[in-house]
Amino acid sequence: MTLTPPPLSNDCFALPQGVDWTPVDDALALLRDRLGPVTGAERVALAEALGRVLAEDAVALRSNPPQPNTAVDGYGFAGERAEGAHMLPLIAGRAAAGVPFDGVVPEGQAIRILTGAALPEGVDTVILEEDVRTDGEQIAFNGPLKQGANTRKAGEDVAAGDVILPMGRVVTPADLALASATGLSQLVVRKPLRVAVVSTGDELVEPGQQAGLGQIYDANRPMLLALMRQFGFEAVDMGRIADDRETLRSALDDAALRADVILTSGGASAGDEDHVSTLLRDAGAMQEWRIALKPGRPLALGMWDGTPVFGLPGNPVAALVCTLVFARPAMGLMAGAGWAAPQGFDVPAGFAKRKKPGRREYLRARMRDGQAEVFKSEGSGRISGLSWAEGLVELPDGAAEIAPGDPVRFIPYASFGMG
Ligand code: AMP
Ligand code: MG
Fold this sequence. Notes:
Layout: H1 24-34, E1 41-45, E2 58-59, E3 69-70, E4 74-77, E5 81-95, E6 110-113, E7 125-128, E8 133-134, E9 138-145, E10 151-152, E11 163-165, H2 173-181, E12 186-190, E13 194-200, E14 204-205, E15 216-217, H3 220-230, E16 234-241, H4 245-258, E17 261-265, H5 275-282, E18 286-289, E19 293-294, E20 299-304, E21 307-312, H6 316-334, E22 345-348, E23 353-355, E24 360-368, E25 371-374, H7 383-388, E26 391-395, E27 400-402, E28 407-412
Parallel strand pairs: 5-6, 13-16, 13-17, 14-15, 17-21, 19-24
Antiparallel strand pairs: 1-12, 2-11, 3-10, 4-6, 4-7, 5-9, 8-9, 18-20, 20-21, 22-28, 23-27, 24-25, 24-26, 26-28
Helix pairs in contact: 1-6
This protein binds adenosine monophosphate and magnesium ion.
Magnesium ion is lined by residues 200-201, 266-267, 273, 314.
């Protein structure tokens, strides 16, 4: 079974007329409005389903538990017992998990029963082994004991026909337990979103190569390719592209054929060598998003042959922040997993900072001793700070005067799906 969603419209990144600096939330709301799933579906075995996005609701084929059973090792009989001493004759045989007792347990008698065993006919209550004395012929114990004690009802966890996992869910190991327990051996999942990653810049060389004067190693591509894999996407490595319009044009053509989304880094602003923004503008489907965000600008969003392009800033710090804040939720929608707003936590600041109004800021941060500490420099060329950090502190759009101990919003990298 394959499901092919409709193509995205060419103007899906169009910004309202006359808008200059777009607040982060408005930009996110726009993406959320305009994007939708672009991937087809396939049926896979449970063993293949981890991390995949459910393309339809998963429905229990069988109840859990399927039959009433015992939650403990002990002795089973019918009905409650009042306070005081009780003695019951034991019948021959036993009920164990996977080896049910076929006969009927007569009223007023008991049977040996082991955890997970289906309750035999005539048993609705179980006394815990540790609370019983026995000589093999009879059991003795003290009440009170409620009817149904130490047993599990059929379907008390899940009933056959219940939706166990909703469409759009990203399958976890626990989901595999639930699906398996309720009789499913396969799940219908979306094909992974294919994300092409392109680095642009004449100055870039490949790690391992000799780097000459003025050259730097490509830091964005290894980061973005790895990040796409952590997001559960299929990363398509398009390599490094020189600052040459025609080379970039054919790289974008190629990427649009091979991927559902294109992530470029570098060349997204309005300079002479900023060919990503120029090409997208020429294609008539370019929007330069002047987002009120630090670090972040410029972010170029456009469509290339019907394929969305996120033109990330070249700066690795800005490239990562833009990917986590903008590209990830947008790509989550395209992957069929819905819009994933990262979960942040209000924690005491371990720093002081004065911030001007007008743009949202993300600081490289980590939690130590119950406080958020921030990297010593806000310089966006400081790649070491990305690696030092374990998350981002998000400062609101307005002005802020933060003193140590004031609450700030900390978003762990893990909340962005980054390990
Ligand atoms: P750009 O956006 O192309 O003007 O690049 C902004 C800054 O980021 C420049 O200093 C670039 O050299 C640097 N840069 C661009 N791409 C990369 C990359 N893939 N790895 C490391 N630095 C980069
Ligand atoms: Mg460049």
